Amino acid sequence: MKKSLIALAVLGAVAGAASAQTNVTIYGVVDAGIGYRDNGNPAGKTLSQDSGVQSGSRLGFKGSEDLGGGLSAIFTLENGFNVDDGSLAQGGRLFGRQAWVGLNGGFGAVKLGRQTTALYNALLQVDPFQINLAGNAQRVFGYGLYAADPLSRTDNTISYSTPNVGGFSGSVSYGFGEQAGDNSAKRNVGVGAAYVNGPLNVQFAYQDSATAGLTTQVTSTLGLPAAATADLKAAFIGATYNFGVAKAHLAFADNKLELAGETVKDRNWLAGVSVPVSAAGTVLASYIRNDVRNADNAQSDQYAIGYTHALSKRTNLYTSYSYLKNDSNVAVNAYSGATGGETVRVVNVGVRHSF
């Protein structure tokens, strides 16, 4: 009997030690708002209840296990959902936001699975609206292609990120196309670099995505084949500087869509500011231009302003407004089937809770 009690005590101690080395966190965001959109649709304006206006609604699981010697196993599984109707986001994927496993140590981190790109992470750091709300820079950069995969997230990806050394960090990634007989088909290559020190945050990213899908706005207004794909190369650089009374945001991107016998050149500029106006409130504003370089009358200009107000550490209210003017040969953010020249207005107001 005594031996049994001793054995149980030892097993309990071992199990306790093992569990102490393992850490799993459940987290999430629930975000719902009311939106108004006037995008030139002949059917009229749209009033709707939307999900994930300031931050995509999500439920996530992340964890790590101490393997000893400074090495740990890490993972993240992140589901995206639409709180307005309860459906899955990201095309109905169970873990469409992130799904990866890897190893972390003094050498950095290696991850395998579905991951956000260096381009996504860099723009998230620089955009005053953090690629959400009515001023979302993703919907304008690269003629709106930054908002879609594979520029936002890539499947079948192996990535390496360096440790932070004196404020400098970097990353490289390779997304397998998994095409028989052609390793370059549908593959994605990404590189990221950052310097973060005190008030200064500088971000660089480059991505080469083979056979990236083009939206109907891109193909129809630029005269490209319907359902076209292209080899898309995107280079982004941006920075923020916190002056205390306000934070300045600047960014530039150069994009190339390479199709058989044709190249579409596209550039983006962003200038923005975020200003704390009280202990709980922050005003956001930005100006973004999308310029198709090798087409006439092909510029789009977006102006946006927003406000967030914290009710607690986890809950806040928000509102934002954007106005986007398209030249006659482009239709950024316009309704599907737009022919160019549309003016787009977006207004939203809502509440976000994180846990």
What are the key terms here?
10% helix, mainly beta, disordered N terminus, 16-stranded antiparallel barrel, 355 residues, 54% strand, Porin, globular
Cα-to-Cα separation, first versus last residue: 46 Å
Helix amount: under 10%
What would the average pLDDT be, to the nearest integer?
A: 92
- Poorly predicted spans: 1-20
Sequence of secondary-structure elements: HEEEEEEHEEEEHEEEEEEE
Q: And the CATH topology?
A: Porin
Describe the overall structure.
- With 355 residues, the chain is mainly beta.
- The protein has helices at residues 2-20, 118-126, 216-221, and strands at 22-38, 46-51, 58-68, 71-80, 98-105, 108-116, 153-161, 168-175, 188-197, 200-213, 229-242, 247-259, 262-276, 281-292, 299-310, 315-326, 343-354.
- The chain contains 3 helices and 17 strands.
- The protein has a single domain (23-354), classed as Porin.
- The longest helix is centred in the first third of the chain and has 19 residues, at 2-20.
- It is globular.
- It has a 16-stranded antiparallel β-barrel with strand order 1-3-4-5-6-7-8-9-10-11-12-13-14-15-16-17.
- 10% of the residues lie in helices and 54% in strands.
